[in-house]
Design goal:
Layout: H1 6-20, H2 33-36, E1 44-49, E2 54-58, E3 64-65, H3 70-82, H4 84-90, H5 104-107, H6 119-126, H7 134-149, H8 157-166, H9 168-179, H10 187-198, E4 201-202, H11 204-215, H12 233-243, H13 249-256, E5 260-262, E6 267-272, E7 276-281, H14 292-305
Antiparallel strand pairs: 1-2, 1-7, 3-4, 5-6, 6-7
Helix pairs in contact: 1-14, 3-4, 3-7, 6-9, 6-10, 7-11, 9-10, 12-13
The structure holds glutamine.
Catalytic activity: L-glutamine + H2O = L-glutamate + NH4(+)
Subunit structure: Homotetramer.
InterPro entries: Beta-lactam/transpept-like, Glutaminase
């Protein structure tokens, strides 16, 4: 638990919310038409501790599409099924420094896909989820995400349909991956499953619980269910640190020292290992596709909590 500082968390959240609630920089994603329609003023922040204490401010019940934050949980599923060496062998773990949809991720290192958090690597990850048919593979993904949230999660159909009509770029990359032997299932069905996983709806509270489960060594703090082995968690967090915010990952890590993952739906999830998680949501994005307010809010809270993982151990709190 966050112990001493816990009583301050409420005040810190409110501070962050007030500080950035009028920041209108950035714009909603619009390459997925449905995302352009989301009210850009929405703003929610939630902290959940590994002990299951929850603090929130703002629009924390609004359901938005998880988008690229889903990549964390599909990776967790595949890690659990295949182990961490198979991830290196089949996917790779190299930060690309490239935009999330970059084709270069596939071309940079021969035989690699970049990492599981750029679209190419994420689709390759999704292609590794086991199951006897497409239905079972999808059901496993949805059930696994829901276990992380501790509640049933569902696809936002309008977002799924909207992206299905406009995802030619991802379809092309899936075929490119297949040409290099890095698609482990039929490309078209993989793109469809990947598009669906990105359209899973979460609210900021559920997202924070998903992160707290990672912070707690893979045990959901509310249901007590162990979702993956603790030794796999550092693998996921290291990727979040180096590639969680796409081509802005280095600057993010430099500023916050916190493993995090963003999505173009406006969510960002940051994990404080052994302590808890900070989730924030607001639709306006910067150039790289990361929520402006969510980044600022999490950076503020993490600083106030002394959550930077490279600094935490120096503090005698
Ligand atoms: N579904 C989105 C895509 O593939 C996810 C991108 C993101 O959140 N950065 O383009």
């Amino acid at each position: 638990p966050l112990t001493l500082q816990e009583k301050r968390i409420k005040d810190i959240l409110k501070e962050a919310y007030d500080k950035y609630k009028n920041d209108q920089s950035g714009t909603n994603a619009d390459y997925i038409p449905e995302l352009a329609k989301v009210d850009p003023e929405l703003f929610g922040i939630v902290v959940v501790t590994v002990g299951g204490k929850r603090y929130g401010v703002g629009d924390i019940d609004y359901t938005f599409s998880i988008q690229s934050i889903s990549k964390v949980f599909t990776l967790a599923h595949v890690l659990q099924e295949m182990g961490s060496e198979a991830i290196l062998d089949k996917l790779g773990a190299e930060a690309t420094g490239m935009p999330f949809n970059s084709v270069m991720a596939v071309e940079l290192q021969p035989g690699r896909v970049g990492n599981p958090f750029v679209n190419a690597g994420a689709m390759a990850t999704t292609s590794l989820v086991s199951g006897k048919d497409q239905t079972e593979k999808w059901d496993r993904i949805q059930a696994y995400y829901s276990d992380f949230a501790g509640e049933p999660l569902a696809v936002i159909t309008s977002v799924y349909k909207s992206e299905s009509k406009t995802n030619q770029h991802n379809q092309a990359m899936a075929k490119l991956l297949a040409s290099y032997g890095k698609m482990y299932d039929e490309p078209a069905t993989v793109v469809d499953r990947y598009t669906k996983q990105c359209a899973i709806g979460v609210n900021t509270k559920q997202l924070a619980v998903m992160g707290a489960t990672l912070a707690a060594g893979g045990v959901n703090p509310y249901t007590g269910k162990q979702l993956l082995s603790p030794e796999e968690i550092p693998k996921i967090l290291s990727l979040m640190l180096t590639a969680g915010l796409y081509d802005y990952s280095g600057t993010w890590s430099y500023r916050t020292g916190l493993p995090a993952k963003s999505g173009v739906g406006g969510g960002i999830l940051a994990v404080i290992p052994g302590k808890g998680a900070i989730a924030a949501f607001s639709p306006r994005l910067d150039q790289a596709g990361n929520s402006v307010r969510a980044q600022k809010a999490i950076a503020h809270i993490s600083k106030e909590l002394g959550a930077n993982i490279f600094f935490r151990n120096f503090q005698n709190k």
